[in-house]
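Recall the central idea of this unit: under ordinary conditions, the amino acid sequence of a chain determines the structure it adopts. In this exercise we apply that idea directly, starting from the sequence alone.
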Amino acid sequence: MLTVAKLKDSRGGKPYAQPLKVKVCAVGNIQNYQIDSGEKKECVTVGMGDATDAIKGTLYDTSKLKTLTGDSTVILMNYIFKNEGEPAIVITKNTKVLKTGTMEVPQDILEKGKRIANPPPAVTRPIKAVKTSPVKSLVSVKGRVVSEDMTKTVKVKGVDVNVKSVALKDETDSIKVSLWRNLSDSSIVGKYLSITNVVVTSFNEEISVSTTSKSILEECEPPVSQIHGSAIAFEKTELNISLLMNVHDEYATYEVPICMIAAALDCNTEDIETELQNNLPLQCSFILKDSTVEEIISITKSS
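Accordingly, the structure predicted from this sequence is:
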């Protein structure tokens, strides 16, 4: 009988009547897409394998999911094999998916099949690094949404699609993110988010990122970090002091609660502006959560 390894050695591009026995390693999430006519379609990535290797399956007939369940063993007939780039078996409504006896598959091949069905997200990179990443590369980002535009409707292949632009900020920089389709639905200003599998784009020499069909948007806890630098200027708001810091010759502002910095400087909150003006620059070590100071480790006058 045909094996996955032998199939991968063939040229592909045509329907195969020769049966292929495989074990389903894992089934990915249903992906929605639109064809040129505007008709909505669904497909699913399935990781499959036998004793020789694992392979990607692209399922366009989701009614067959009741047979292609995780850990099931099946025989495929009248499938299409594509060997352009990543080898893949295309399963259409004309493909026969038949139940059969269980087949043992080595653990390393099972794991490979699972990664094919549910690949790990692109590496999360600081926003400053994203801005120097190659256009069209796939990355993941984290940051706080500091502003958002109104949702717009644009034409994509003649079909109305919703999109919303937001500004995402982390401790290194900020960037525009275009949230497409269902990801544009809710208001997220002020939330700290993880957005996976966004594509780097460039328009009018501005680098931004856009969500893809593989993007997942989730609220998460902002990271905790420590910085040491020189506070050189400030602005007082109702509850905080916004300190402009020089950290290794890079400048950023950090929010410090007025009561916290007043206690560190041993002064009354009413006198904090005068105290800062008389003592800047200050050498500061802070524990940060996002861009807000959670704890003052030390704060001293510059010598």
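Residues 226 and 287 are 5 Å apart (CA to CA).
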